[in-house]
Amino acid sequence: MLKILLVVAVILFGIWLFKKDRRPPPPTKPTTSGKTPAPARALPILPCSHCGTHTDAREMVRGQLGVYCSAAHCQLSGDRIKP
Length: 83
Ligand SMILES: [Zn+2]
Hints:
Blueprint: H1 2-22, E1 45-47, E2 54-56, E3 61-62, E4 67-68, H2 71-76
Antiparallel strand pairs: 1-2, 3-4
């Protein structure tokens, strides 16, 4: 009787080992909608209203008539810098 239980235990252990190895690996950290992670948010680049030079929107001078690459171009365009 003990031999039968031992054989059953060995068989169950073998099945457990087989299933353990066949289990698919856990999925990697899911990303949003399964796509590659989005790059850092692009900064807006705007053209200067005077010369047309494209500049980072954070560095531009904002006038009342438009945006400029520098305060000099704002003045050359007869514009005033927004307070
Ligand atoms: Zn300019």
